[in-house]
Write a structure and sequence with these properties.
Strand order of the largest sheet: 1-5-10-15-20-25-33
Number of strands: 34
Radius of gyration: 27 Å
Length: 415
Amino acid sequence: NEDSSLSSGDGGDAGTGGTGGKVQLLNYASVSSATTTAIFAQSIGGNGGSGGSTSGWFGGVSGGGGYGGNSSGVNVTTEGANGTAHTETITTWAAGAHGVFAQSVGGGGGDAGVAAGLVALGGSGGPAGNAGQVLVINYDDISVTGASSSGIVAQSVGGAGGTGGMAFSGAPGLAVSVGGTGGGGGTSGQVLVVNEGNICTGSCNGSAAPATTAGGAYAILAQSLGGGGGNGGFGLSGSASAVAGASLALGGSGGGGGSAEAVVVDNVGSLSTAEINSAAILAQSIGGGGGNAGGAVAFDITVAGAATSISHGGSGGSGGNGGAVGTNCNTYTGHAYTNNACSSLTFADPTIGGPYPNATITTLSSSSPGILLQSIGGGGGNGGYAVSLSASAFGEFNMALGASNGGSGWRNSDC
């Protein structure tokens, strides 16, 4: 949707992305695959549409980006026919072929349109969709030997915010441009993996070297990742006049990063990995990075009067917060684990059997810790630059103001 006229007009706002539905998968059988992931479950929100552009002599406001759609929860359970453990198997051989893959992804916010004219205002980028919670409960034994293939991958990923609209203004006498603000990143949901099965990746014969060394072959990978904020729009203004003239340009601010929620892994099975950079358990909650601000450039040329140029870069978006992260942060009573130590986790408390005799965690290659837990706040976006130029035989005034970077998000250490 684009408006172009000799006077002024506004670009149309974009539509909202659709909501991804809830996914529930219950598997009682053995599964093997030579080419792809064995069990795959995913909910994805739709992306927001792009805003319409506008141009005309007097300018206008470009259309804002559409909202990203939310995704819903994803629940996967694999077990034997009678709810038993170790009676069924999940096996893959290909590169990038995971045993169980469960993911909820929020839709990205749409980008705003471009504005051009005497007074040009860029629309705002669309806010991203939020991601749903992810739950994986596994009782099966899993063997995956392809490069960069993990036993269980459970992820909740917030969508990325849309980019603010660029604004371009050029006219005699007075020119004004304001870049649009970036859309905020989506929040990611809670992630819980409950594992009672034995899992091996890279090599499953005890101590042999893996066939490949690509890395990233985890036994259990659990992540909650906030979406990144959208970048602010660029502002450019230029004027030329025989008498007094002025030019003003403002860059749009970056959108804030989405916060991440709690991640918990409860494991009682034996785990082994053979590739480099392959932790047995990698659990992360990482806030989204703030969007970078838009720059601003203003210039004015005046023949017989004072020339004025003012520019101000936008502020960087703030990073999102990381959530609580824990493994086996629970209590063992009787013959079952009950997940109750991570207060921020709101899943219904599942129970799994107690530790098996001689259960072990083994990693065979470098940079592969047994258990790696991380809660990381997202980095703030960069502030926008500013440039002002003017030329006149009767006096010049230039002002260029840079802006601050966005603040980083907080990590969480509740667990």
